[in-house]
Amino acid sequence: MAMKEKETRDFQSEVKQLLHLMIHSLYSNKEIFLRELISNASDAADKLRFLALSNSKLYEDDSELHVRISINKNNRTIKINDNGIGMSRQEVIDNIGTIAKSGTKLFLESIDSNNSKDKLIGQFGVGFYSSFIVADKVSIRSRAAGLPIDEGVFWESTGEGEYTIANVRKSERGTEITLHLRKGENDFLDIWNIRRIISKYSDHIALSVEIETQNKENNTTEWEKINKAKALWTRNKSEIKNEEYNEFYKHITHDFKEPLAWSHNKVEGKQEYISLLYIPSHAPFDMWNRDHKSGIKLYVKRVFIMDDAKQFIPNYLRFVRGLIDSSDLPLNISREILQDSKITKNLCTALTKRVLQMLETLAKNDNEKYKIFWKEFGLVLKEGPAEDSINYKNIVKLLRFTSTKNNTSEQTISVEDYINRMKEGQDKIYFITSDSYTAAKSSPNLELFHKKDIEVLLLSDRIDEWMMNNLNEFEGKKFQSVSKVDDSLNKLLDKEIKEQKKIEKTLEPFVKRVKDLLDNRVKEVRLTHRLTNTPAVVTTDINEMTTQMAKLLSAAGKDLPDVKYIFEINPNHPMVKRISDIKNDIDFNEWIELLLEQSLLAECGTLEDPNKFIIRMNKLLMI
To answer: Could you tell me if 180 and 135 are in contact, meaning their C-beta atoms sit under 8 angstroms apart?
Structure first.
């Protein structure tokens, strides 16, 4: 085989890591490599079909697409050969010499930190690299469709840090991968074992998978098709087994775990389309990356159009995987047309409702699976109320929280659960936001609610404050922060307020004295009867920015005005009674400053000058 421009290159560092783990880690399911390579061949065929819509010459007089597998026992090799889109020299370097996916590095780090190599290697979608699980040398011959036959490319590596690449002649387009098997991998030289693996993992793909057989009668080579080669989503649901749905999910996602749920639907009428949507059981590593790609594949009349069809699923459901096959969209559709298409918007509306129904069914019928979903994707779903007013009610039903009725930070309580437990006469859904579950649970703002045995939702995820700005009401019940001043809180205190009128009258001079001291540093000074164990708290007015929102905006680099707090003092607390009797202005001022700093620390989690607070507290402790 004549080679030109031959050179040896080093792998990217992340590839070296990955190959090292592939080669040296124990692995319980080695046969997965064949599924990965066949899936890659299927993707190559899909890309060729799409590009050939506008340039039929790419078929090069061969439009019957397939992937062929042959075994050579003497040479101990398996050859996987497809006639899909193929690769140019630069594409081979880009696709195999480097790892472009941003999640792969995090994946490698997680394996090292979890020390779970034997469980994860090869079960993560590492595609081509899984070849090195069973092979000690891998060779590739490829030519991109449309390129001259002398612009084929040869690639070879033993997976030990470098690879050889050169230009070669290749008459057929597509990619041929040859695996030189390691010692001890004789099972993969058994044609019946290869048949079994293909039937198990690749029966559902819409590409003919053929295996080389020998006709003993006339001593000729024949290619026998092993899989159904009929797109799974086009088949009748009653004919498809759960195992086939699971394997198809793994095929299109390269995921190693089975999905939590799926929905397969064929719609006829004004719009005709088939959708097959999956809810994964774990989040990808790049879920929060800005370049995170949608998991929805678009087909038009069984022809693959694009991988990253973001137009069909809103961003807060970006964890959904699957495909849509439409009969109404034009085959030569572009992304710009797709964005403006009324059909596209209607499909997005329908698929959104389908996903929300799927999640609602999962929540009702399988609580354990929904817990897994919420743990993995709850933060993403919390973006929903702000993004999708049309499906607001359905989204809120799916949200989960922890509360003062829980003894755990696990978020398992729905808003419907909360409403069913509301006290007689309670007309609001109470919540508190904080930096952590512990801080929320121990907030002094909850003391009244503990006393009245009223449940409060505890929110401590970073997104929660932003989410609550878009959660107005549910089933006629408004959401109310317990750290804000509100008339509904006064209704809970009717009895206490009547009993404390005399105390308030006698403390009017004390309140005025505090106001004069703090002046415009606080919005207001008032007595409160919603505290039991705490001498004072700071709260915000109903229209004022909350502490948590100020923190979020500050973290985003926004310049914000200072939050003006209301300083609420508990007249029944022994410390307050003692301070109110202090005549010396210097000592009185020190104690009030201490109370305010304590309140700010409890609310904000930090102080502008913590050392000043410590000095003041130590000084007063010595008195």
So the answer is: yes
